[in-house]
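Collaborator request, handled under Task 6.
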Amino acid sequence: MQFDYSIIVRNLPVLLLGMGNTIVFCVVSAIIGLFVGLGIALIRNSRSHGIAAVAARWLAVAFVELLRNTPFLVQAFLVYFGLAEWGLRLNAWICGILILSLYAAANFSESIRSGLLSVPAGQTEAAKALGFRPMFIVFRIIIPQSVGYLVPTLTNQFIGLIKDSAALSVITVPEVAMAAQKIVGTTFSPVETYAAVAFLYWVVTSCLASVLMRMEHRWSSWRRARETGAPLNTPTCATT
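Structure tokens returned to the collaborator:
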């Protein structure tokens, strides 16, 4: 069998458009998932003993466990066809973002929760002793200190989100996997088509990992500078 590069060249605009849609889906879903996941993590970390707080924690646990322990493909089918059965018909774009956002929120929430718990408890106790309000403690003290712990795990989850988005093609979301299916249907060349798709996924995920690693490095440098009082990115000189 001979690998026909001309098939990739002719259909590259279609694949690039599909990958562009994939990036849009994942960016929007990741942003929504981060905010929802943060809310879930805060609910689960809450130590309130009221009935409403306990019920909220149980619902948060059920949401996370359900979405993390069932296949994303099954979730996509259930949401897409289940909402239609109830008379709520959403177009593929909105439904795809909804499904991917919920899935991202469930996974992000566990990473965010562990990152928040990694901040020493003494920080919270000291802030309470100084009279700071709970919201101030969370958003100005705990969350900034947990970013360094979160970036490595969130990087892997962002990459996984991009790869998992390929399952959205089963509900006709116009992303790169769906574009590849259409190309294969007209060219009957699955090897060339999916080789190109794999290469595009590799480029996007590699660029994302590189950007997030740089962010982690800069955040670590800034944090060390704050702790030691040394100028940021200033090389140290040995003294004799």
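The cover message to the collaborator said: "The domain at 5-121+130-228 is CATH 1.10.3720.10 (MetI-like fold). Confidence is low (pLDDT under 50) at residues 234-240. Please let us know whether this matches your experimental observations."
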